[in-house]
Amino acid sequence: MEQAHSMTDEGEAGRRALWIMLRSVKGVICQGPKLDSGYFLHASARAWLSAAVNQDVQIPAEKPRTVFRTSESNPANHAEQHEGQHYSIPLQEVKVVFPHGLPCRFQMQMRTFNESCLMVRKPALELLGYLKNTSFAHPAIRYVIYGEKGTGKTMTLCHAVHYCAKQDWLVLHIPDAHLWVKNCRELMQSSYNKERFDQPLEASTWLKNFKTSNDHFLKEIKTQQTYMWSKRESTEKGRPLGEVVEQGLTRVKNASDAVGVVLKELKKQCPLGSFRLLVAVDGINALWGRTTLRKKDKSAVSPEELTLVHNLRKMVVNDWNGGAIVTTLSQTGSLFKPRSAYLPHELLGKEGFDTLDPFIPIQVSNYSQREFESCYQYYLDRKWLQHERASTEEGRKELLFLSNSNPWQMERISAYL
Amino acid sequence: MAAAVRRVLRASRAWSAAPRARAAPGAQTLRLIYTTTAVQKRNVAASGPEKYTEAFIKNQIEEFNLGKRHLANMMGEDPETFTQEDIDKAIAYLFPSGLFEKRARPIMKHPTEIFPKQKAIQWGEDHRPFHFLFYTGKQSFYSLMHEIYGKLLDIQKYEDHLRAQSLLAENRKLINLIGSRWLIKEELEEMLVEKLSDHDYSMCIQLLERLVTLPCCGIEEEYVLKFRRELSIQLKKMVIEPLQYDEQGVAFSTGEGKRKTSRATAVIYDNGSGKITVNGVDYLYYFPVMQDREQLMFPFQFLDRLGIHDMICTVSGGGRSSQAGAIRLASARALCSFITENEVEFMRQAGLLTADPRVRERKKPGQEGARRKFTWKKR
């Protein structure tokens, strides 16, 4: 690029050669999607402008490329200037941090595009700001992310989880609490407490994913109590927590109790300060709603009769310190709630609201103009919108109208094009 | 019109030959866009001898007039200024009928409208016909052709006369034919009280056209206008409301629309950002199906005004699809106030301003549904 400044004083032929060279260099830049567009575009624009001033050749006016990507892949450094831009998470990291957190449509998109890109949005930035300023001496603050259907609550939660994982917190991520209160195939009576019911399948899946994401912590944290699983099996005091998880995985019958033990230990040990804990629950309104499960005598099971739900409720209460609790309300998987309900008191009910009170509400809404533009450019760049009219201005307006800037709707419509 | 129209007498011989199907270049074969009552009535005229005698018709007319005066008295109106419209209203009031078929309801009209026009007996006591063209079979038609041709010859004679006095250039009189159409075949049949063939009809119209192209045809304008009917222009019927302004000075306009059993009203505001609220709910949540949202989008997209207007609408009745259609019509009508006349015409041709007339068809007895019959069993 520096050559440009020296060569512009030479003759016409020199200028022409310079122009051709710049054009070829710019072609190289255009082909590399992984390069940080910000830096190179700026540099080439500078050289271009300085060359253009001294040249007589007519250059067609370049449309400014909307910057929709950022290379800042550490959520800790995300600030307002990154708002509306996509940042990508390396796939290896995704496997470790999100074994079970991302929405399934996003996972399909990840597989198609071969990269996972999250958009940085204002609610997420707000939440990250609060998390950065948490004081670990005070009780854990509860954050409730709420909003209309399809506005990006789960993605905001995943952004926060990624941040905490990068900051080396212990992340307790429950992907969808609704899965624990419906469609359970095996419901067993709990051995620990005769009143309650166990869900071995859900508990074992969760333990497996928990192990993947927090392996290194499980070796360090030691149990503070002996746990008897049966007459022959027990975990002694002082053993690493990983053994409890192993026990849950191998003896599937005890998986729910293993989950309860893990939660109890973490809650007890977090105030001691050796690690920071993030409890991330998606669809927390499931814990206080109704279930579709039935007992053997066809009477309904209420949520507190399930071991998993009971233990999770204890976790979400803010009588411990040293971490944060981030939750999301979700109408999509909820049971017996109308489609238009999205406010906390509608979805949580009186009991849930009282338990979670006080909390910090964070509202997520549809895309703003800038964010919509960014999403649209991203899909165009990934060649996801194949329709010939999709890249025109009218096509953009049509998409904007049909989706009303709703992220979920936009994603579904783009999938058809 | 270059084609030489054969003289009537010579043509009568030619017509009896093989029928020529090709239409001469000047003739107007009118495509029936909308019908008149002439088409629907049976042409009783040409079928057989008189059913109603003249005396009978005269009797009926007297009775009708008397009855009209009685009716006026009954209703407390002035018998002298009692028009046909007043008669219709009075009958509808005195004999209310719930029948759906309008033609089956009680009517009281002048006997000439009720009894079809008939030909009087065309021969005398000595069984000799009155008209000299009786034996052609279509006496009134041929006499009409004679008459028109006679007029044509008169105009030519007048022209020659003017040309001799070299006053032709100043005295051009033409008939204004804009905004009217020739009679259709059924109307001509009704006028002549005689059955015609398509060929006869086209011959008559060709002759009239030829007459109209002559420079001095203005002399016979009154006669020619008997064969013309007024055309009413479609678009003039639609009234476009002017824009209204609310307190902040933002321009808005309202429109109403309906489809099946849904009724919708839409208020469109200027200086908006493309927000649409239906019954207080955002349109994305009121119409989760994309098809309905596409229907809402159509008027705006057609006029390329997608992100410019805000809309607030209310809708009731019907199902999701018919509600979407009703809102579409209402918003198109409201948008008419914001756009130019040409664009309104484009919208009309695109079908955005026409109310969809399709309604649910009634179920008939003996069938399972409106069209579906019961399963046919052989035995």
TrEMBL record, chain B:
Transmembrane segments: none annotated. One of its GO terms (biological process) is translation. It comes from the Eukaryota. The keyword Transit peptide applies. Keywords: Mitochondrion, Ribonucleoprotein, Ribosomal protein, Transit peptide. Residues 357-379 are annotated as: Disordered. GO terms for molecular function: RNA binding; structural constituent of ribosome. GO terms for cellular component: mitochondrial inner membrane; mitochondrial small ribosomal subunit; nucleolus. It is found in: Mitochondrion. The keyword Transit peptide applies. It holds the Pfam family Ribosomal_S9. Belongs to the universal ribosomal protein uS9 family. PANTHER family: RIBOSOMAL PROTEIN S9, SMALL RIBOSOMAL SUBUNIT PROTEIN US9M. This is Small ribosomal subunit protein uS9m. It comes from Gopherus evgoodei. The lineage of its organism: Eukaryota, Metazoa, Chordata, Craniata, Vertebrata.
